Every structure is written in C-alpha cells, then in structure tokens.
Amino acid sequence: MSLKVDCPTCGTPVEWSPLSQFRPFCSDRCRLIDLGEWFSEERSIAGEEHTPSSDTARPQLSAEDLALLEQD
C-alpha cells in the first residue's frame, strides 16, 4: 500500500512516490498556483518581520577594502 497525501492546493489525493511527478501537488497547475501564492505573499512563514536598521543596511568598508576596489 502506498502513502497518499492531499494536494495542498486542491485537496486531490496524490500518491507519494517517485512516479508522482509533481508531488505533493496533483499537477503542474496546482504547483504553479501555490508558487504564485508565495510570490504574492498570500502565504508566508510566521515570524517577526525583519527590517534592516540603517547600521546594517550598508556595511562600512575599511580603507584597505576601498583601496582593493580601486585597483580593479
């Protein structure tokens, strides 16, 4: 007996095996719908939102690093 999981997008049962090309999704369409939801931020992983402070936004380069950059 093989393991079956529900497609995260539409709920269709999907056999979990190497033969299931789009697992855990039932189709490429469902896979792309899910990907689009992540890109549009409809889906996300819970946690604190990260906003870089002005100190960490741009690293300060040392005089040595600047000299190396000017050589190129």
List keywords for this structure.
72 residues; mainly alpha; Erythroid Transcription Factor GATA-1, Chain A; two-stranded antiparallel sheet; 3 helices; elongated; Znf_NHR/GATA; zinc
Strand order of the largest sheet: 1-2
What's the alpha carbon Rg, rounded to whole Å?
A: 23 Å
Number of helices: 3
Q: What is the subunit organization of this protein?
A: single chain
CATH architecture assignment of the domain at 1-44: 2-Layer Sandwich
- Overall strand count: 2
- Name the CATH superfamily classification of the domain at 1-44: Erythroid Transcription Factor GATA-1, subunit A
Mean pLDDT over the residues: 86
| Global outline | elongated
What is the CATH topology classification name of the domain at 1-44?
Answer: Erythroid Transcription Factor GATA-1, Chain A
Structure report:
It is a single chain. With 72 residues, the chain is mostly helical. It has a domain at 1-44: Erythroid Transcription Factor GATA-1, Chain A. It is 35% helix and 8% strand. It has helices at residues 28-39, 54-57, 63-71, and strands spanning 4-6, 13-15. A two-stranded antiparallel ribbon has the order 1-2. A hairpin with a 6-residue loop joins strand 1 (4-6) and strand 2. The longest helix has 12 residues, at 28-39. It starts with a strand and ends with a helix. The mean pLDDT is 86.
